[in-house]
Amino acid sequence: MIRGQGYFKLKPVIALTITDFEMFDHDQEVIYPFVFKEKKRLFDYVEPEIELIFIELPKFNKQLDELETWNDK
Prior knowledge:
There is one protein chain. The protein has a domain at about 15-60. It has strands at about 15-20, 30-35, 50-55. The protein is about 0% helix and about 25% strand.
């Protein structure tokens, strides 16, 4: 990157975390996508492509023949 060049060439960043434990025991979802928010006024970060995704494997109970969606597979 040349000094002074903008960040428009950066690719979107997604942090994908797959856990073998339950992080969110109050809910039965398997996939949890999070976006960045400003803490005080709660507005979203301007780039929606930057997100954190948590997948909790213990909550995924489908058998191979039950996989239907892209997320399942």
